[in-house]
Amino acid sequence: MRLYNTLTRNEDEFIPRKRKMARMYVCGVTPYDYCHVGHGRSYLIYDVLYRFLRSEGFSVLWIQNFTDIDDKIINRANELNIPPKELADRFISEYFVDMDRFGISRAFLYPRVTEHIDEIVEFISKVVEKGYAYESEGDVYFSVRDYPSYGKLSRRSLEEMIAGARVDPSEKKKDPMDFALWKSAKPGEPYWDSPWGRGRPGWHIECSVMSLLYLGEEIDIHGGGADLIFPHHENELAQSEAVVGDGKFVRFWTHNGLVNLRSEKMSKSTGNFIILREILNSYRPEAFRLYLLGTHYRSPLDFDPQALEDAQRAYTRIEDTLKLLSHIPDPPSPAYDQAFWDFRDALSNDLNTPQAIGTLFSYIRENRPLLDKGNWDPTLPIFKFNLIRMCEILGFKIEEKTSPDLESDKLREVIDIIIKIRNKLREEKLFHLSDEIRDSLNSIGVILEDMKEGTRWKMS
To answer: Where do the domains of the chain lie, and which CATH numbers do they carry?
Structure first.
């Protein structure tokens, strides 16, 4: 598999540090509100990457944090007159409600900042000891100009960073580009004790500490949205390698493109966003997955309601095919055909989901006529096996809505007998009776479809 590596600006061959073991860290949300569509896209991308790596035989250790103490949480909690922890706990729970509904696989662990204060304080102390950070009136800052490799991820000069960044001009800093590792407590804010006084961690340090704690050095994949390249991931890379050594933090930095609404980045801070839950209430989660995966993960995506409607209709084609295949037996052993290998090759090429989806729909178009004829064909079990494998990797829910009883051979025979009787009634032009049989079966979920080739049945 080849993945685009932001650090090298190349599509590099993915070779994990340990054979067949992929260690992946994904930056999580700051839980002060509901997730928006941009969050949904980001976690969908890493869910599909996780599913694909597992299908390729990798064990995947996926860690994803929660930033459960932050200025945004404190400010929102003050607005609602509740403790910051209560607010964070609430929206962590809501995160799982949305992501479970969206079909996002659970990470192995979701560490929280507030549960790792001791480890964070210890790590900051190491950065200070190495000479890359300094204390100033209860704050601790990373000294950007003292770290020669700073900027290698975003490939910006310090002058460009200063011009393009929202720099905090605190008088406590030696340089405007320096960033906080530890922030001294303000009145009324949560705090923890440290060698520098009471305070709380800065934003970037948490991911360094928790990723290294749970995944060790040379993490295989570190992911997040493209908006995190600078300053978050740039700062995270610098402070981490200041401790573990140059080139020993992350092997692959991967970043997904942002979702735009009205030609601007979807963002809670600007009020330009759509809540993910609103979409999931109006559309099938699988259809929304199909819509998002129709654009390559590194490309920006302009939210388009009409394209989402089209994806909803397109997904019914997949769903209807899976329903028809529910009556087809599985092959006696796994049997992969060329379509699956083409699908796999697309995902192996920097997770090219648009190409993979195109392969899936071509595969359906080629094989659907066999199903529509209603006749048995020995290739159908193989078609079923491969289509289900593709859908599982893309996270499309496989629902066989037929009950176990109606799957039994005897009941299939009963329905076939009823169809034969109904066909004789139609030959005798007793249409009121044949229609009554059709409607009665329909009322219990058995749908009859009269085709040129004969009558077929399926479950609703």
So the answer is: 2-265 (3.40.50.620), 305-394 (1.20.120.640), 404-459 (no CATH)
